[in-house]
């Protein structure tokens, strides 16, 4: 378990224990969106920040999203321990813990062309049946190199139902068969 995971688990446990999970989750979501910005990410990763600058940076982030005290305190601990570079990972892991507790599966779907509503529904149903999740949330991107079909990423798994993936698997099987035949 990484340090970021430990901080996230502690924050999640405290937010649950103090019945502040929805407020902390809202703050985490707002901060996660903010740290996705390249400028903020670069500031967090800057090893030359002084302790005062780290504290000031975290303080302004907390103030900007009106973070609850539990979240503000956790970020303050990260700043005082010179671990603000972990903030994006802590926030992401917290959101994963929250999703897991609420039966939500986040899925990144990459397709060659925009999905239709029927395709989205079918993908959601397939993944919901597989994961037993109560809710499946899709985020979509396009990649023309897939040639057709889609790839879905969730829970550390990849479902590759793309035409380029099928062609690659076919090519591998053909190379294996030819190699086996030549080795006889």
What features would you describe in this structure?
This protein has 184 residues and is of the alpha+beta class. It folds into 2 domains: 97 residues, N-terminal domain of the delta subunit of the F1F0-ATP synthase (Peroxidase, domain 1, Orthogonal Bundle), CATH 1.10.520; 78 residues, no CATH class. It is 63% helix and 14% strand. Strands 2-1-3-4 form a 4-stranded mixed β-sheet. Helix 1 packs antiparallel against helix 2 and helix 4 packs antiparallel against helix 5.
Notable traits:
Peroxidase, domain 1; elongated; 63% helix; four-stranded mixed sheet; 2 domains
Short description:
This protein is α+β, with helices and mostly antiparallel strands. It has 8 helices and 4 strands; from the N terminus they run ααααααβαβββα. It has helices at residues 3-17, 21-35, 38-45, 51-65, 69-80, 87-101, 117-131, 163-183, and strands at residues 104-111, 135-142, 150-154, 157-160.
The total count of helices amounts to 8
Structure summary, number of beta strands: 4
Question: Any idea of the CATH topology of the largest domain?
Answer: Peroxidase, domain 1
Tell me the CATH architecture of the largest domain: Orthogonal Bundle
CATH superfamily of the largest domain: N-terminal domain of the delta subunit of the F1F0-ATP synthase
Strand-and-helix sequence, N→C? HHHHHHEHEEEH
Q: How do the strands of the widest beta sheet line up side by side? A: 2-1-3-4
Measured on Cα atoms, how large is the radius of gyration? 21 Å
Summed up, the domain count is: 2
Q: Which stretches are poorly predicted, pLDDT < 50 over at least 5 residues?
A: none
Largest sheet: 4 strands, mixed
Mean pLDDT, all residues: 91
Distance between the termini: 47 Å
Specify the helix fraction band. Answer: 55-70%
CATH class of the largest domain: Mainly Alpha
Strand content: 5-15%
Q: Which structural class fits the helix and strand makeup?
A: alpha+beta
What is the overall shape?
elongated
